[in-house]
Amino acid sequence: MALMRVNPTRMELSRLKKRLAVAIRGHKLLKDKRDEMMRRFVELIKKNKEMREQVEARLTQALGEFLMARALMSAEVLEESVMYPTRRYDLKISKRNIMNVNVPKIDYEETSQEGLSPYSYGFAATSGELDGAVATLSGLLPEMLELAEIEKTSQMLAEEIEKTRRRVNALEFIMIPQLEETIRYITMKMDEDERASRIRLMKVKDMIEQRRA
Amino acid sequence: MTYMYKIGVVGDRDSILGFKALGLDVFPVLEPDEASGLINKMARENYAVIFIIESVAAGIHETIDRYKNVPFPAIIPIPGNQGSLGLGIEEIKKNVEKAIGADILFGDK
Question: Are the Cβ atoms of B71 and A156 closer than 8 angstroms?
Fold first, then answer.
């Protein structure tokens, strides 16, 4: 492990000791953060996977129905049928804080006009498959929004976990060993200096006594 | 603080027309370049959730990745009318590998 380039002085030693204490404390905190995030992430990602599989299956089915409707109706009529929807979805979003990661929270609000059917078209000119497709899709939308929330959350959490893990590793395998090594180096160097000056004094004393004799 | 946000759907015309009946904003696109510009524009215009048809999403990874670290918009790939390409599941798998370092969900497959 590489040494830091420092002057082996008492000042430097106490400075490094303080840094080491901070590094160790930071390491412990970050490790706890990482472990807790992992736990949350595992819970979340399992749910995410289940929901996605479910949504994808149902969506594929709905789109299949829609495709049938499209095949049975002319493009213009179909386009016209869905042109003026009777409902509108507004999203209310806020942020939730999971272990200091800001993740989205999505609530939706459905606005439909009074007294209008959910279908934005007359039944005369359209095929039954279209009704089915629209019904399935509108039933699916709340789930899709929930999926969006969960998926985004796990995405951001994954990113943050990776970042935190890097920091933990950098502290554990680089910072802390480096500081310890440097502290040891300074201690040894100072001991060595002390021994050297003691020997020098003893030598001088010997010389003085020899001269007296 | 809450504002009103919108839901957008991006993809080929055939796949997304159904969402229009629900009152979502749909944006038919053909070219990946077009889609990428569109996503950027939507992100500026209060779209909180953007559903994007997988076949389109496959071409504009970079644009989608750009919004990964911000809470909004959430860009969610959904299967189009050709069926699922497995892109969404792939994304989940990538997240697991990134966070945990190993695949723990899909190991049995």
Answer: yes
